[in-house]
Here is the input.
Amino acid sequence: MTTVDDGVLRTADGVPLKRSLRRATARRRTRTFMLVVPILAFLMVTFVMPVADMLFRSVDNQIVSSVLPRTTIAIQSWDPLSEALPKEFVFEALVLDIQESFKDKTLGRAGRRLNFEKTGMTSLFRKTGRRAKLITEPSYRDQLIAVDKRWGELDTWKLIHRESDAVTESYFLSAVDLTFDESGDVSWKVEERRIYLFLFYRTLWMSALITVFCLLLGYPVAYLLATLPTRHSNLLLILVLLPFWTSLLVRTTAWIALLQSEGVLNDLMVFIGVVSEDGRLQLIHNKIGTFVAMTHILLPFMILPLYSVMKTIPPSYMRAARSLGAPPFLGFLKVYMPNTVPGIGAGCILVFILSIGYYITPALVGGQTGTFISNFIALHISETLNWGLAAALGVILLAVVLFLYFLYDRIVGVANMKLG
Amino acid sequence: MPPPLHAPPSERVWYYAFRAICVLIFIFLVGPLLVIIPLSFNDLPYFTFTPAMLAFEEGAYSTKWYWEFFTEHSWQQAVKNSFLIAVFATLISTFLGTLAALGLSRPEMPFRKTIMALLISPMIVPLIISAAGMYFFYARIGIASTHFGVILAHAALGIPFVIITVTATLVGFDHQLTRAASSLGSSPTRTFFTVIVPLILPGVISGALLAFITSFDEVVVVLFVGSVEQRTIPWKMFSGIREEIRPTILAVATLLVFVSILLLTTLELLRRRSERLRGIRPQ
Here is the structure.
């Protein structure tokens, strides 16, 4: 071993102590990080990439350009503001594309895609597809217009020009009730087709009201649990945890049994005589159903964070307030309540986040007037197949949720979340 | 505690009023679950009490909806699927989640907060968005409409629950114990299995139970990622409520209430054991 006497502390093999420590720390950090590598890789494939895939669909617009590749290139030379139809070679490209994609049976996809923007496009493409094989020589333009006069309209070509880009903003516009008008400018949709802003608004205000209901019902219960001796409160806590642990569908089913017009509550009210046999109340398949069932389902998520905060407030605070002359209510308002604010914040944000993304319960008890934005996302994915619009609605919803999640992390800290 | 005898009457009235309000809220919480139990024994296919039931007539009650559940093939297949999917999803998320929680509890973990936020996100992202994304992406990589695909999806959804419960157990973990074990000559592996595992096991099991119930109750993702072959109990209930509403659903719901009571009891016992092991005594 060589000894260098320069005042630097060294390990037995001559490495300066500082460097050795740094290396050891780095090694430990890497080793620790290896523990989370498997889970990160797993979530990446099973969760993050799927969600990213879904979100990307909100701007992805490759249907038209993949079904009509020649037209997509040819139409770039056309100026949509020129007030003149595209030149002959663009029509030729379109005829060739339509002939080919009709044979491959992909033409319908382009028609359906354009139909989201302008009704009638599906039938236009279907009709043209059937007749396009007869068009083999110029003039392509005149023959196409002979098949359907819409091929002679500027709007049709403006639409194809706009949607042949690989990226589109039309789904997002649609998700906030905007559209491209005849001249290609952004404008509001016609009155009766404006539904999504209203739906976002409804999702938000109904969720806010559900959060308020949960707070009003949860606060007294949490207070009771926190002030009772532990052995009593543990028993009562089980009554809170039981619904929390019971299947969502079981709870929704229970509310259907209770609330429907031939259900338990209505029967009871008819029996007591509060309502007449013909005057049975409509308590389900509307907003009331969503409010009641969702409040019930989300209530434990309010009680648990409130309870865990209230448990840490020493009872001596209230006694001190009383001994200083505060009446009970004032003492509660001035001393106890301010101490529970973190719990109120945590519970409210959690309930609100969970509520605005709900799908199952509104779908089963919400009817027409009590459904949320999630229900429309599901509708566009499985029924209308307008995946781009579903994705755009999803992006907006997710943005709201992530903002609240960020807020939650700031206020409570994700690491402090407790369950049961 | 009740107000003292010298308390003014207004205070005592308020005390009992408050208790009464709380009782009502507890009825709101638990009542609906209790109501479905007698309803599931209804002889007629209604979702309400018939006059005969209220009169306690003998023929008004029957167990036929339970029979239907236990004998009908599609329900039995659903039970099998539910357990199969939930068990494997739980194993995956518990294994990966415990490993990660052990890492996250160490002070030298880099990017701790970011990783934590990412691991919790499957619980926060609206289910419909996750489900739709999985539907498209799993189809692209060829695992949509397979048990494997649904298991992976449910494992992802169960991870936050495992992370939350296991990290909570590790918060009170006394790192002196592992140091004591090493100083007594125990190898890291042996320390892990004889010191760390017994101490965090209650937390791991409660995390696993939460992951299990998450998968067992989950319906949105199964609806999108799965096909009829992967039909689970919640799927059957969901389509049952939407299409033809039969009291069989109430029978299943009653059975599920008992399943959750069972799980809850297990969890409570585990919590007590964990507190005892960590030296926390109930006051």
User: Anything to note?
Assistant: Chain A has a mean pLDDT of 84. Chain A is about 70% helix and 0% strand. The longest strand of chain A covers residues 178-180. Residues 1-51 of chain A form one domain.
